[in-house]
Structures are given as structure tokens and as C-alpha cells.
Amino acid sequence: MLSTTLPLKIMIVDDTDDVRELIGAFLRARGYDITMATDGVDALEKLGNDTFSLIITDINMPKMNGPELLETMSRSTKDYKAVVMSTYIGDKIKTELRKKGAVSFLLKPFSLRQLEDVVAQGLA
To answer: Which of 42, 86, 90, 105 is most exposed, with minimal Cβ within 10 Å?
Structure first.
């Protein structure tokens, strides 16, 4: 019998092409449906047309950064879960981001094992 379950959709939001491509390729190989966005503005446009099981976003990006994206998403009628990436994430910002939908954090540089773990955590 064939499975009719659709793959879970994940959006990757990062202004660095290599980071987006690496995460996207890794997660596609694990069966996820991946959409990519270059910043918060691009992500919001794509969020308006689709629903995602998880958003993986960088903190520092042009046009609209990760915290601004999560703030905007938190005012939506849809429920979102987000993993936030950065080279440093202090406790104060973690607390604020959790209030806006962040379920996990990923410090750059990270291993693919760490990525896999936070994605599983975020989808749980």
C-alpha cells in the first residue's frame, strides 16, 4: 500500500545563499518539502501563500530580521513553530523569541546532527 502522507513543509529563511542551500539539501534528502526565503519580507510573502510545519530563520538579515519576522508571524491567525539560528543568542533574546514562536535555537556554526536534532525537536 502506498503512503498518501505528504512530506512536512519547512521554510528556511537566511540571507546567506550557502547556508540556505546546505540546510535545504540536507533536509530534502530526509524527505522534507523545502521552501527558501532570503529575508523576512520574502518569507512573509511565501507564508501568505502556504502553510509550513516549521520555519528555520536566521536572526540577522536585511529588510526584515528574524525577530521582526517572528513578531509579525505571532500576530497571524496561523500557528507557527520556529527554529532561530545565529552565531550568538543571549538568554534575554531567547526569552523574547520564545514568546513569538521560537521552539528551539541553533548556534552557527552547527553540525548537521545538531540541525537534525533541532528540526526533530521543532516538529515534535
So the answer is: 90
